[in-house]
Write a structure and sequence with these properties.
With 45 residues, this protein is mostly helical. The chain is built from two helices and no strands. It is elongated, with a radius of gyration of 14 Å.
Amino acid sequence: MQTIKPMEFFRNLPPKQCPECGIEISEQAESYLMECDHCLSKRED
């Protein structure tokens, strides 16, 4: 079994996409949001 260095694993992940509109989300450290800012602003809580 081949082991992958952790940073190499994370660099090879595809970019996160908003499930509502499909645009690519620019991720920030410690962010667990799934939707983009635009779709989040349309939500009613």
